[in-house]
Amino acid sequence: MSDQPKDQPLSDAPASFAKEQLKAFIERIERLEEEKKAIADDIKDVFAEAKGTGFDPKALKEILKIRRQDADQRAEHDAIVDLYLQALGMIG
Predict the structure, then answer these.
(1) Mind listing the pLDDT tens digit for each residue in 41-77?
(2) H or E segment and range at residue 35
(3) Are 91 and 82 in contact (CB under 8 A)?
(4) Cα–Cα distance, 59 to 77 (Å, whole number)
(5) Which domain holds residue 30?
(6) Alpha-carbon dihedral of residues 70, 49, 37, 61, nearest 10 degrees?
(7) Is 84 inside any structural domain?
(8) Number of independent structural domains in the chain
């Protein structure tokens, strides 16, 4: 016995499945986008709270950026920046 509805021809089954699958993907993405926005709002609130207690949000963002980097890549980047600053006479 087939799971195919009687009013739907067999040839429409793959199209119907694809349509339902597409709809499911879109709905999942929409839910994730809503969650992402909620998390972004939470992060914004934490930055505002930190600023309210005297911390500099730009500095916090820089620290977060640094913490995400690989230690070796960060050391290489810092060495290059120091070299450039020396070349410009900005550091001894």
Answers:
(1) 999 999 999 999 999 999 999 999 999 999 999 999 9
(2) helix 13-52
(3) yes
(4) 18
(5) 13-55
(6) -20
(7) yes
(8) 2
